[in-house]
Amino acid sequence: MAGGIGALALTVGGLGIATAANGGSLVLGHSNTATSTTTLKDKHGTPLSLVGKKSKPPLKVNSSKQVKHLNASLVGGQSASQLAVHGYSGQTQFSVEIPLTDTPVVGAQTPVLPKGTYLINSAAMIQGAGGGFCFLNTSNDQEDAVQWGGGEPGSASTFSYTPVALSAMVTVHTPVAWGAYCVEGDAAGSTVYNAGITAIRVATDSVGTKPSVARKHATVTTRVP
Questions:
Q1: Distance CA 178, CA 199 (A)
Q2: What's this model's pTM, rounded to 2 decimal places?
Q3: What residue spans of the chain are helical by DSSP H?
């Protein structure tokens, strides 16, 4: 019996807890110590499998140092493709002018966007006396527009250039293309050109709904003598 215990090289601490020293066996349910690296090999399969309670991590470490060659299928619950930043863009030909009517037309459109959260930016130039407007959406439905931009000149008889800039954070649940749709202003005859749109997929987003600076309006009381 003494020889067997010596072969296991077990040491007993002051509290009577068995720990395996170098050359000994691991003692399950207890703390084990070693002064050199332990290597576990299996030429026929996976050398180590850790199975724990689903609500608990199967492995713990005591350092924040990177573990070389350690791969994970998910990071923060997201896959590598979800974490990767992707860009999608559409651009109208420089010399093409698209006539505007009261029915929205596509100024620029992205390819079909996969599921995810996107920062969408679009810019265009509208020329003509009537001005015009553009909005972001997946269709030409103005009621569901995410954001509008554009303007109308002060006088319908004055030929003008109206720049349009749009930006919004959107979540795509079903793969679909996003576009900048444009419509005429207060008079016919305007066109849109140099329209472009870019969608960049991001890992997370935080959307605010209140102005960053709140201003309190002063109350003015008028007294009649």
A1: 8
A2: 0.60
A3: 2-8, 80-83
